[in-house]
Amino acid sequence: MQRATTIAGVREVLKPLRAAGKRIGFVPTMGYLHAGHMSLVERCVAENDVSVASIFVNPAQFGPNMDLDRYPRDPEGDGAKLAAAGVDLCFEPAVEEIYPEGFGTWVEVDKVTEGMDGASRPGYFRGICTVVLKLFEIVRPDAAYFGEKDLQQAVTVRRMIEDLHLEIDLSVLPTVREPDGLAMSSRNAYLNDEDRAVAPLLHEALTGAAARFREGERSADALVAHVREVLARAPAIAVDYISVVDLRDMQPVESIDGDACIALAVDLHGTRLIDNIILRDG
Ligand code: AMP
Predict the structure, then answer these.
(1) According to CATH, what is the number of the domain 2-173?
(2) 22-41 pLDDT, tens per residue?
(3) By CB count within 10 A, which of 41, 97, 208, 228 is most buried?
(4) Catalytic residue status for 37
């Protein structure tokens, strides 16, 4: 596996491969890789001639009180995992490479970013869309891989790809979970034993609501009430939002008619955890 820290370095590696007609797949990450990330990487390697991963903890998507400074990092371990999985190129830029002095152009996607994480974290999706478009332009992939774990992000990136006519096949892959149901996340590393023990309640609450949906419940309020009730079993869990939204445009729905999802974000002693479950008829 080759490693590049500069944009020029990435272009130097990829230009001849692209000219030779190779199909390039891309997995953007913030590193501290776990099995969820690796599921995207494995799919990318299987479906493309050349696979590129990026590791970049993007300051533009962190609010002033977020965990930018303590976000976990393991460049050595990440490199070993990516190389073993068959990745051809890992791009690990410094912040100044992506946001040099004088930087002043931002990408904003409306509507799908209004609620949930967009409402709770001002500037979050602007930061994500800006860095993802930059990375797309640097790597110029034919295919890109994102996780359903960050569903609003994936829907936002899909909107951006369509709106800006980017020639990129987007794949959104299922959430990889720990055996007890907790969605894998780099931030799980922050959890102490007590918080780790209650964190699986998120998935339990969502699967309980999905079971009620399958039994015919269509009221968003009723499903949210169920999720809230399960989460209330752990007083340490502070709910940020529990939302039932249309899967295509992330707009809140009152009564579910068509594909939807229940998404939530909570705070567990300073650690932000998100999860979701998709609700489809039939
Ligand atoms: P991150 O490093 O958190 O920015 O995540 C990089 C990519 O991995 C994003 O597309 C995430 O949605 C995806 N991802 C993170 N956690 C998981 C998971 N548990 N299962 C599947 N994909 C994930």
Answers:
(1) 3.40.50.620
(2) 999 999 999 999 999 999 99
(3) 41
(4) yes
